[in-house]
Amino acid sequence: MTLVLDSVTLTYPDGDRRLTALDDVSLHVPAGTVTAVVGPSGSGKSSLLAVAATLITPDTGTITIGGTSTTGLNRAVLARLRRRHVGIVFQQANLLPALTAAEQLRVVARLDGRRGGADLQAEAGLAEVGLAELAHRRPHQLSGGQRQRVNIARALVNRPAVLLVDEPTSALDRASGAAIIDLLTARTREHGVATVLVTHDRAHLDGVDQVVELVDGQIAVRVSRAE
Ligand SMILES: Nc1ncnc2c1ncn2[C@@H]1O[C@H](COP(=O)(O)OP(=O)(O)OP(=O)(O)O)[C@@H](O)[C@H]1O
What ipTM did this prediction achieve? Predict the structure, then answer.
C-alpha cells in the first residue's frame, strides 16, 4: 500500500493568530520504500508524522492510505484504520514495564482480534528482529537497542501498510542506531511497507529511497534515489 499526502496544510492556534506547521506538503511513499524526513527543529517533522498517522486532521489537503482517503472519516473509523494499517515507532520504546518482550507483541496482536495466532505472531515478530532468544525478558532486562527492536517488532506485528518512525535512534549509540536503521529498511522492503523515518542523523540517509527536507513547514529539498 502507498501512503500519499496531497497538498496538506496544518495550522495550530497561536494566541489570536495561527501558526502554520505544514504548508502545502505533498508526499508519495510507495510500498516497500523508506522516505527520510529531515529539517531543523520546529520545521514540522513531527506534525507531518502525526498527520500521516491520522492522529491530527489537517486544515486542508488529503491523506490516502492504500487508496483510501481519510478525509471525512469519523474518529472510530480512523482508529480502526490506524490499528489495522499504521505502525508507529517513537523515540523512546514506550514498552510496558511489567510485560515480557513476547507479551508486548501479543497484546497488540490480540487488539487486532487475531487471538488464535497472537502467540505465533509474537514469536515470529521477535525472531525477525533477532530477539527470539530474549522473548521472555522484560524491558529492564534489555539494552536500549534491544528495547527499540522490540518496539519495531511490535509496530510491525499486525503487518501495517504504513510505518511512521520518529527519531528511533536518539537514545542509542552509533552502532546500535545504524543496526536499527538497517533493520527498518530490511523489514520495509520485505513486507512492502511504506515507511516514513524522521531523523536528525545524516548517516541514516544512505540506504533510503527518498529524502525530503522540511523548512518552515514546506518541503525545501526532495531527493529520490530512483532519479
Ligand atoms: N500542539 C501544538 N500547538 C501549537 N504549536 C505547535 C504544536 N505542536 C507543534 N507546534 C509548532 O509547530 C511547528 C512545527 O512543530 P513540529 O513539532 O512538527 O516540528 P519538528 O520539526 O518535529 O521539531 P523537533 O525537531 O524540534 O521535534 C513549531 O513551530 C512548533 O512550535
Answer: 0.96
Tell me, using a 6 A CB cutoff, whether residue 54 lines ligand 1: no
- Is the CB–ligand 1 distance for residue 43 below 6 Å? yes
pLDDT in tens, 112-143: 665 568 888 899 999 988 899 999 999 999 99
18 lines ligand 1 (CB under 6 A): no
What does the alpha-carbon distance between residue 14 and residue 177 come to, in Å, rounded to a whole number? 36
pTM, whole model, 2 decimals? 0.91
Ligand 1 centroid–CA 148 distance in Å is: 24
What the chain holds in terms of domains, given with CATH numbers, is 3-93+161-224 (3.40.50.300)
